[in-house]
Amino acid sequence: MGEATGVFNEIMMVLKKRKGLIFGFIGGATALALGASLIWPPTYEAASTLRVRQAKNTVRLLPIDFPASTSFPVQQLMGTYSEVIKSESVVNAMIDQAYNGRTDKEKPTYEDMLKRITTQPVRDTEILRVRVAAGSAEESARLTNQLVETFNQRLTELGRAEQRAGKNFIGDRLTAARNELEKAEAELEKYKSEHKILAPNVDTSALVAKQSSFDTLAANNRVALAMSQAQLATAQAQLANMDPGFVADNETIQQYKNNLVQQEVQLVELVQRYTEKHPAVVTLRKQIDETKTKLAEEAAKAASAKAPSANKVYQDLMTSRIQAEAGVAAAAAQQQAIRGVIEDNQKEMADLPAKERGLTRLMREANVAQETYVMLAKRHEEARIAEVMEAMDVQLVDVASVPAKPIKPRVALNTLLGALLGLTAGIGLAFLREYRDSNA
Fold first, then answer.
1. What's the whole-model pTM score?
2. By CB atoms within 10 Å of each CB, which of 73, 102, 106, 122 scores lowest?
């Protein structure tokens, strides 16, 4: 106890003896920190608040629509979007728009601007805060709002790409379908006129009515197969540009694919015998929808597990590819079954008189052309609307306002740190001089 008291007294004696040196360092460091803080250019930071949520009510294009997946966690989306906001495509576009009219030398580089951008997901919420620092309060608010606007534009562009491809495809088919419908109707009227037929007889009407639902199914099948093939080609092309690898189907996905194929083939058999409102047809269509839902969920899980760096765009493309592959397989199997039914129908029609056989064929062709045209017209309008829709999974909660105070320099904090640094240096130098003097 006495030894500790002696050491303490020696320390206090040194501090009293060298207090002038210590206070000099404190004063000098404090003045230097205060002066530097006062002359250092201020930095302002404005903040904008976004809400990230799962997109809903997405317009789909395929007649064999798969339900939209909801298996991507919101927190994972926020992490992904935090990186998208700071991507070169978004930041460079923001720089070009924010500094429009200036030369390249007057514009900040991507690397410089990236250092000024901060994204902060708020834990356990759907909130994402975006901040941009600048030399003036007005510029920080302007850059933050411009960054958010550019980010939303980029999301919209990504979302519209697939819709645009589908719309263009449907538009081409719609034009061809209109021509086919006009041709079929003209040939039917010409045939009636040449053979002096005002209306088909009872047997012909019954045969045509029997085939109506089946013809609609066949028309939808042709478009479904073509659209699934187009969707698959689009997903494969974009995935090839992003990453050469792809998630392999697991056993569950393969089982759902097989179930979907079997159900689509079974639907062909039922449509031959019953109308669309028959309980057996209604039940089977519900089962097909349930299979598609389960397939979409499993595909999304597989894509989420295999996608690199939690990239939502890559996940969506992989999910789209799996669904498209299932769509192609199901439509192709259904098409094969339809061909068998067509052969049976042709045998049944062969028993009709020549005049009635020709009328039945033309009436069926006109019905198919009409169903195809109406279906494509509806899909084209849906695709047109989807193409111009804004991104709905990111909502702007608060625009960035002009900050009242700079975030840098912090005069009080810098002054306090300067004082502490001066105190530490002064005490250290005091004991160093005392040591030298005692050993001189």
1. 0.45
2. 106
Residue among 187, 181, 168 at smallest CA distance from 234: 168
pLDDT digits over 320-336, tens only? 788 888 888 888 888 88
In this structure, how many other beta carbons lie within 10 angstroms of the beta carbon of residue 6?
A: 10
User: Residue 364 falls within a domain, yes or no?
Assistant: yes
Distances (CA, A) of 175 to 178, 190, 220, 354: 5, 23, 16, 33
Cα of 434 vs its chain's centroid, Å: 69
Alpha helical stretches, state H, 353-410: 354-388
Residues ≥6 apart with Cβ < 8 Å to 83: 309
- For residue 403, being part of any structural domain is answered with no
Lowest mean pLDDT across 97-101, 245-249, 263-267: 245-249
State the DSSP string of 282-323.
HHHHHHHHHHHHHHHHHHHHHHHHHSGGG-HHHHHHHHHHHH
394: helix, strand or coil: strand
List strand residue ranges (DSSP E) for 38-161, in order: 44-52, 117-121, 127-134
CB 120 within 8 A of CB 129: yes
Order of all β-strands in the sheet with 127-134: 117-121, 127-134, 44-52, 394-398
Q: How far apart are the first and last CA of the chain?
A: 30
AA identity, residue 367: N
In the block, which residue shows the tokens 């040939």?
Answer: 187
Q: Residues 288-315: pLDDT tens digits?
A: 989 988 888 888 777 766 544 445 566 7
10 Å CB burial of residue 421 (0-12, 13-18, 19+) is middle
Name residues whose C-beta falls within 8 Å of residue 149's C-beta, 6 or more positions apart in sequence.
none
* Any domain includes 240: yes
CA-CA distance, 390 to 159, in Å (whole number)?
Answer: 8
- Look at the chain and report how many structural domains it folds into: 1
The rounded distance, in Å, linking the Cα atoms of 333 and 262 is 8
- Structural domain including 369 reads 172-385
